[in-house]
Request: fold
Amino acid sequence: MHYNFNFGLIWQHFDRLSGGLLLSLELSVAAILIATLLGLALAIAHVSGGARVRAPIAFYVECIRNIPLLLLVYLVFYGIPSIVNLQYSAVTSFIVTLSLYYAAYLVEVFRAGLLAVPRGLLDAGRAIGLTAPQRLGYVRLPVMLRIVLPSLSNTFVSLFKDTSIASVLAVPELTYGAQWINNNTFRVIEVYIIVTPMYVVTGYVILWALRQFERRLAVR
Amino acid sequence: MSSLEILLRALPSLWSGLVVTLEVSALSVGCALVAGLLFGTALLYGPLPLRLPVRTVVDVVRGIPVLVLIFFVYYVGPAAGLDLGSFAAAVLALSLFSACQVAEITRGAVASVHHGQMEAARAIGLTFRQRLLWVIFPQATRRFLPPWINGVTDTVKGSALVSLVGIVDLMLAIQQVIGRTYRPMPFYIVGAIIYILINYSLSSASRHLEARFAYVRD
Amino acid sequence: MGDALVRIAAVGKSFGTTRVLDGVDLDVNRGEVVTIIGPSGSGKTTLLRCVNALETYDEGSVRIDGVEVGFRDDRRRPRRDRDLSRIRAATGMVFQLFYLFPHLTAAENVMLGLRRVRRMTKQAARERALHWLDRVGLADRAGNLPSQLSGGQQQRVGIARAVAMDPKVLLLDEITSALDPELVGEVLAVVRSLADEGMTMLVVTHEMQFAREVSDRVAFMDAGRIVVQGDPETVLRSPRSERLRAFMSRVSHVSSPGVG
Reply:
């Protein structure tokens, strides 16, 4: 194998990678917040509502979960402005897309969590006179969040990895930075030797942080 | 030209793209199943010198985005002097990613078979091979199939990324058609419908299987 | 017999073709402890849960201090959530499986109803909660989560949670059935002391000794009806009903050693 390793070129352009990682994290945080709020709202609606509420939510979830994220990214960025008079940046478009995509996954996670709350706890809430909205806020949601925290952690890490798709819209996140270096220096092995641990370690840090949070909740 | 005419004209391109998507997916699923079962077995029963490297590879591959893996495999070949061809490179990357997922599913399925089953099997005198074959694997299989089918839908969705290394799958075919017709939305919708049809049937099969196996209680 | 605090009259409930409650009449007077015993499936837990509207009933009437629990008017339309909240705040229930809120400490478990339903201030709620936790012997565990407490301790917190709301009547649903035998005593001691102070209680239990010693009246339920009721001595010492005799001979094989 004739390959001359040259890491120097990578370090020269390292700001594209470090800046890219930062942008990936920013995209992740924004999408996580929106997806969680949306997914939670839809899950509560699905569990409490009648068939007329459940059907459109189920439809949305099934459609989104069965298509590639890439397709949805293109659809939102190129498709929608072609039929509606809206303009938005690639970053905005991607955050909206990623949020919509993961909200669909989170609806299922939260739904399962809400249904897993023991019925007896809700009875205990009724017995002390809590109204339905009070039971939701003081009993159902807190208990549900503790139940779903492990699944939630894994979903968040997946979301972080999927920020790599933003590179197709020329959003300068980590994968775009790696490809820029690859295309301009041809140091493909070196750049991915650097970028791989950047993704892997960040993923582990996210999991670790959430596990700490989980432990805090369990002990107080 | 009416919308319908444009759509009909595009059908041949979309069709060949769909065929490529199905080819890529099927090949990747097949290779991933074989490799994944091997990796999974190595993780469960292999000696430490085998388990460690496999564990590392699986953890690293699962820790990076699929897209990164595809780019790496696609570009590293020519750079290192090996030329696989873009189709083979893409399938290799996708297979590797899915194989690591299958390895984890295998590990989970076998580990979830109750410890007591192994003990009971040992107690009636079955050898290790017999225990695996007649007691563990049959029970592990029903815990393997539903998540594996979910993994297959992930592979089909992941196959869309090969469009970014020039393989003319359904995704790239759609992009090309849009490039010719300047009508993005209808074709994105058509593409979405096709992917939904494929994946929804797969996940229905998975749910059906889960229901069938539900009578067995843990 | 003045106006009974809890008046259950001709209550009936069907579940499909099964008659879960079949014409039950029972009064609980202020300060009385009434115990319901009977085989599983007799409907005693269902009846108890009708009193605080955790179950609905099809026929008859359940009134607390004259107020109909299950329906809001003569047309028997179901009660609204708000009204149910008020009715339930006036009753206290302790559950067989405790159902303490796992994410809240013992004190917070007791305080939740005080703050959100009785609308007390955090300070006032905390004082009251600590008072009742002390009363059940758990003042030093106020800051512990349920997962850090034994079964008997959790159940005592459950009692404190119910009683702190100052209910008119306390509903106890087999509160010792899920406890290890050595933990039953501490719970029954608390209940006995509450009874001594005049708390009105409707109790469903398997603890015959307890029924004998603490109740003012015992009712035996079978197949959705009250077969026999009266004072504990008469009903339990010399059962005249055939079914009651059969039930008691079955239970005497499994009852726990002397309590108290």
Remarks:
- Chains B and C do not touch (no CB pair under 8 Å).
